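Quick log. Single chain, no ligands specified.
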Amino acid sequence: MMTNCSGETQKVRFMKRTRIALSVLCASLCLVAAVFAASSGEEGELSVIEELAMLRGLVFERAFYSVIIPAQEASVAMSKLAVRGTKDLELAKWAAEAARRHSEEVIAARKAAEKLGGIEQRLYGIERREMNALMGQIATDGTYAEHIARCFELTIEAARLAVGRTDNEALLRAAEEIIRDRTRLLDDMQKWK
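-> predicted structure:
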């Protein structure tokens, strides 16, 4: 039997990959079932936060990153818009730092999501459209602070849901950092609202 540098046999590697693939398939099916069950008979669609609130374990973890990543990407884009569009040097400096930090978060979140089998495209798409709408409003009215505040509030809501819905220590640490960072940024932003 062939082994790799860590001593794993091909059979062990195959079993690990199979277990991950089955977990991802199961998670996807559970997400579809949860969304269908929750939305049947209800008017309108569930918000992404309502969907997250119904999930647990690996299904929650994939959905969490599927919602957080587009919000983080929007935070980067909105911050860059503020840097280019403001004459307030303090706001520009603050926004440049937020863009830098949140760019790093996007990279880390994408890596974490890949380890879990990737993002859930439907939720990612829903959240991406919402964030694009906020960015479009900034381009129209130039009110950076109130639109990025909505982005931050969403990430805080999603991060708070992580407690009790997953045992993934890395995700829980990321959620705690998001809550601390976005709460502090919202407090900082009061002077520009």
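The radius of gyration is 19 Å.
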